[in-house]
Design a protein that fits this description.
Layout: E1 5-10, E2 13-18, H1 25-42, H2 53-59, E3 76-80, E4 92-95, H3 97-100, E5 110-113, H4 116-130, E6 135-139, H5 146-156, E7 162-168, E8 176-181, E9 184-189, H6 195-203, E10 210-218, H7 223-238, E11 243-249, H8 259-265, E12 267-271, H9 277-289, H10 292-302, H11 308-325, E13 328-331, E14 337-341, E15 346-349, E16 363-367, E17 377-381, E18 386-393, E19 397-400, H12 402-414, E20 423-431, E21 439-443, H13 459-462, E22 464-468
Parallel strand pairs: 6-11, 6-12, 7-10, 10-11, 15-16, 18-20, 19-21, 20-22
Antiparallel strand pairs: 1-2, 3-9, 4-5, 7-8, 8-9, 13-14, 13-22, 16-17, 17-18
Helix pairs in contact: 4-5, 6-7, 9-11, 10-11
Length: about 475
């Protein structure tokens, strides 16, 4: 093999590095650093500053000449795409499977709840990245919707003007590149250390159009990720007029970020924060009012995750959606009809502030605290003196923490509503498939409900366990 050399210039230093046998970008970086320090030590006085990431990016912009060829892959055409539209006043955004395939995100159609940070990220990408050409970083903990929002934004770009390249980085697998160009979508893998292939992918587009690249799933603790990042940085610097770059980072902060480097690179970052309690509650209420069929589809899309808490949460939402739309029919352990609760609207309830209650009609409430202990719903009928607690559960057993019921009943009695409790019901609602297995645990503090007609030792006898049909038929 003929010798290959890389010319590196930094400040007043110029040197030549033999890269004939290098196969990994980290080897080139180490050689640059080593040669730079060697030159500084033996040839010249120490410069005023050490080489930064920016210097190394510039120095490595011609590194592809020294790379050995590895396995290559070809583009795989996936589908044709329609441009999606964005409404800044919308509360939902639908992202279908054609866009999601091969991106490293969900393979199921997504209906995204547009919490405020969704619109903030759209605004950041439009105003900062697209309009003003900044190098965009989007940071935040996993599960905050950074990636899906970025892909949603990409789906709204005018395909007559923009080419989109989506690079998803895995921890243990090869990066996958997705190209959205015109009305077509295609993908291919970028095999290990084949950075020259990545440069080819980045450069081989319709040059009459602008080009935006998204690096998704970036973490700074993996050399493969850093290799891709540096290659994209070098690509961006070649033409900042027509090129854009966004890094969607699976971290809450950038490692050793420096203000002067950010200014030099024209880099701006957006922090996406975890869901607030009010965000979660608003999302739940929106899903409920879209109907039980939507909840079932959401449950089907998430059930493969094997998260029992998520399964229970979905069942609870489906219960409220069913109650809101059609009413709920309940059955006992022998499959006999127990009760039918007619279709009803329901209100949110601050446990510490009771609203005015009608004298003649019962009202359903959902506690506004998403993790309220003891119960998920309350039915209050002031005229009948009825208090009905409902706990919806997807498990085989459920705790019976009397303190939560007792605390609520005391506050209700002491509230301005002058609510006289004459009938207390505590009902556990489970999926019909749990008829032979579901049990309520022993009460945590027996005897706390004696003031409300439940004698010590009778708690489990008075609790009702019923079952609901239609959830997973």
């Amino acid at each position: 093999m003929p010798k290959r050399y890389l010319n590196v210039e930094y400040d007043t230093i110029s040197t030549e590095i033999d890269v004939t046998d290098f196969e990994d970008l980290s080897d080139v970086q180490d050689a640059i650093k080593s040669e730079w320090f060697l030159c500084c030590h033996w040839c010249l006085p120490s410069p005023s500053r050490q080489p930064t990431q920016t210097d190394l990016f510039a120095a490595g912009s011609t590194l592809t000449a020294g790379y050995k060829k590895r396995r290559t892959s070809e583009w795989e055409k996936l589908s044709t795409l329609a441009q999606l539209s964005y409404d800044p006043n919308s509360t939902i955004f639908k992202l279908d499977t054609n866009y999601l395939a091969k991106t490293g995100l969900s393979t199921q159609k997504l209906i995204l709840y547009c919490r405020p940070t969704f619109h903030e990220q759209f605004s950041f990408l439009r105003e900062k990245v697209i309009d003003n050409g900044v190098l965009g970083w989007i940071l935040g903990p996993p599960g905050t919707g950074k990636s899906t929002t970025a892909l949603a934004f990409a789906s709204t770009l005018d395909k007559n003007d923009w080419v989109v390249t989506w690079i998803h980085l895995y921890i243990d697998c090869y990066p996958v590149c997705v190209r959205l160009e015109g009305n077509s979508k295609k993908s291919q893998e970028i095999y290990d250390s084949n950075i020259d292939k990545l440069f080819d992918i980045l450069h081989k587009v319709d040059e009459s159009k602008q080009h935006i690249v998204f690096i998704d799933g970036y973490t700074s603790n993996g050399q493969k990720h850093i290799d891709v990042q540096q290659a994209c940085y070098s690509w961006l610097e070649e033409d900042r007029e027509k090129r854009r770059l966004v890094v969607v980072c699976s971290m809450s902060s950038r490692y050793k970020a420096k203000l002067e480097e950010d200014m030099l690179l024209n880099l701006k970052q957006l922090n996406v924060y975890s869901w607030k309690e009010e965000d979660q509650f608003a999302g739940v209420m929106l899903a409920i009012k879209k109907g039980p069929d939507l909840i079932r589809k959401l449950a089907k899309a998430t059930r493969h995750d094997g998260n029992p808490s998520m399964d229970g949460w979905m069942l609870e939402m489906w219960f409220f959606a069913s109650l809101y739309y059609d009413g709920v029919k309940l059955f006992d352990e022998n499959d006999n009809e127990f009760q039918t609760w007619p279709a009803s609207n329901f209100k949110t309830l601050d446990i510490n502030a009771f609203p005015a209650l009608p004298e003649n009609n019962g009202v359903w409430f959902k506690p506004n605290k998403w993790n309220q202990g003891g119960f998920d719903a309350i039915f209050l009928d002031k005229g009948k003196g009825l208090v009905r607690f409902v706990q919806v559960t997807d498990g085989d057993t459920h705790s019976f923490k009397i303190k939560y019921f007792h605390s609520f009943l005391l506050m209700l009695c002491q509230s301005p509503q002058s609510f006289e409790i004459t009938c207390l019901e505590i009902i556990f609602v489970a999926d019909q498939k749990k008829r032979s297995t579901f049990k309520v645990a022993e009460p945590s503090v027996p005897g706390m409900l004696t003031d409300f007609g439940w004698r010590l030792g009778e708690e489990l006898d008075k609790v009702k366990v019923v079952f609901i049909k239609g959830w997973c038929d």
